[in-house]
């Protein structure tokens, strides 16, 4: 897909996301200057409709930004902000600007007290929470899903991080919101769990493409026994396997992105997250095998990518969660045959 | 084009109306077709079935109308193909001709060859076989020894082909052989269109597979005379012609739907009751299948646009074979019922058949190792 916004992001990240920047971020330093550039380029508002002040880029294309940010190991919540803004806009809430993040809100308890909505409960492993201005989440009130925009400054955070050193913080919520920050989700664009799984699948695909590229370059450059190790068939077959798994992951993630906002979304996301997670395990392991000891060091860039894919596979539902869900749907499908379930699950063009 | 990018099939590629028509046709035609027979998948042979399918316009779908085809897209053909495979319909009688021989003749054949042969393929009347492999030339196709020597009015062929699927019933073979010497390892090769029913001095003998089935054969050419107009395409261009056939041969849904009867049997048993662990395994299987199907549809879309997605096709075939070969293991891990060849219990019979079929999936159509070599080179290894 030719896309101006993809080209722009690609250029921006190529020029600014260095090994050093990823190292500093993992050490706790938020790359503020880069964030300003990202916001100025309009990337965070790509999925917001023009009427709501965004750029109205079609979802599949806008979500391509997530794959690209994954390919660069971007240590910032661009994917989260992109989704948070889209969800806010869909509920008629104005995108507030700044860094946003998303969280599953299933553990929150909501209660009306006069005009205010009181919210209590925990949010766990929230990506980049301490670098974010707001956490956007979805939770049930009076039986309907509500979008909540929670100011981080009013929450109690317990900092933590993922394998790649990126902030993953627990938050204790105990506050009251007005209608300005809590609105019903008008139609099911998927809960935060689905949306989170979607962006992690896309980011994994992007990161794996980078891992494959790094591995091919390394195999061409590294000489042992008088020739590049890429001449050895065992290494070639590892690389081919990595490419196959990566292709499957990207296809899976893009299939889910293509069905954003359609009834096929829930099942395609389940397939995408579980397939990408499985690929992440193989691709990571083989990449380290190809790279030898140098790839096992802090100094080499490989670990920033392998750690990211291994973290992302666990977030917003593990493979076990998603395969169980998908399998349950398959086995309880009212369709005559499993085959009919499969063709229906990915059917395009079904009205939202 | 990035090797790991599989563009989505164009919008509307579901062709739901066509799909429902095919389903209705199959429900009627295969009403009494038992799971053990469905398990044979595209190895099942029935001229009658192929002819009926053709009457519905579902053979030679992508061929131009002037050659008896239906000028439909590769994606419409894809819908019909996958529905046939998922139902376990006996399709081999027309499958090879429809998939690769017909398109090859249309692309490289003379006007006379096209007019004589292609309409009969589209009518479901002709069964084709592929004469590539030899005793000493398997993966290394360029080592082919069968030779065509030019003589008055044509060629004389000598040599032996093996593993030739359905040669014993086929009407035509497309033969790959040597026609001259060349410094280039891939030079001096050509393809011929051989009328197996009308050509003397061809000896076809069965080879029985380890499951006891007869589908492939040995084919011996003993000074076999072929008229000049049997040459298919350019003399000496056989190698590149064969290579362009492979994207058609490798990427189709037969590369991940040939064990489907076992999956349906397995799901049938688990539907009544399944633990979470069993659900998760079925979920994993579903995810793989949904993704493979999307990749294969993507390749069909690329073929439709006239691109040559040979590398993507190799990826689909490699992943498809891995997936399918794992299905008997998966079934055994979820249901404790021994495989019984020809057993009365259809699950047991289908499991037995499939266990013996799967070793061939990473051999036929290019071995796993060869495919991985192709993919690795496509990645830019120097
Ligand atoms: C069911 C079935 C149907 C078939 N139908 C047809 C048909 O209709 N027409 C036809 O022409 N052929 C047919 N074949 C033949 C098929 O194309 C060959 O089996 C295949 O090309 C492999 O050749 P081979 O069996 O001689 O194995 P070999 O080439 O001898 O390979 C044996 C092993 O060595 C490996 N190997 C070989 N070379 C290399 C290398 N360079 N690097 C690494 N490993 C290598 C292979 O991957 C394999 O694991 C069929 C095969 C089967 C099983």
> Based on the structure given, which CATH architecture of the largest domain in chain B is correct?
Up-down Bundle
Give the count of structural domains of chain A: 2
Largest sheet of chain B: 4 strands, mixed
DSSP, total strands of chain A: 10
**Order of helix and strand elements from N to C terminus of chain A:** HHHHHEEEEEEEEHEEHHHHH
Description:
The complex is a heterodimer of chains A (352) and B (382). Chain A is α+β, with helices and mostly antiparallel strands. Chain A has 2 domains: 2-184, Butyryl-CoA Dehydrogenase, subunit A, domain 2 (Beta Barrel); 192-343, Butyryl-CoA Dehydrogenase, subunit A, domain 3. Chain A has 11 helices and 10 strands. In chain A, the strands form 3 sheets. In chain A, strands 1-4-5-8 form a 4-stranded mixed β-sheet, with helices on one face. In chain A, strands 2-3-7-6 form a 4-stranded antiparallel β-sheet, with no helix packed on it. Chain A starts with a helix and ends in a 7-residue tail after the last helix. The mean pLDDT of chain A is 95. Chain B is of the alpha+beta class. Chain B has 3 domains: 16-126, Butyryl-Coa Dehydrogenase, subunit A, domain 1; 130-236, Beta Barrel (Butyryl-CoA Dehydrogenase, subunit A, domain 2); 251-378, Butyryl-CoA Dehydrogenase, subunit A, domain 3, CATH 1.20.140. Chain B is 45% helix and 14% strand. Chain B has helices at residues 16-29, 35-38, 47-55, 74-87, 92-108, 111-122, 238-250, 260-272, 276-304, 310-325, 327-334, 346-357, 368-378; strands at residues 128-131, 147-151, 154-161, 172-178, 189-195, 202-208, 214-227, 231-232. In chain B, the strands form 2 sheets. Chain B has a 4-stranded mixed β-sheet with strand order 1-4-5-8, with helices on one face. Chain B has a 4-stranded antiparallel β-sheet with strand order 2-3-7-6, with no helix packed on it. In chain B, a hairpin with a 5-residue loop joins strand 6 and strand 7. Chains A and B meet through helix 6, helix 7, helix 8, helix 10 and helix 11 of A and helix 8, helix 9, helix 10 and helix 13 of B. The complex binds flavin-adenine dinucleotide (FAD). Residues 129-133, 138-139, 163-165, 216, 360, 363-364, 367, 369-370 of chain B line the site of flavin-adenine dinucleotide.
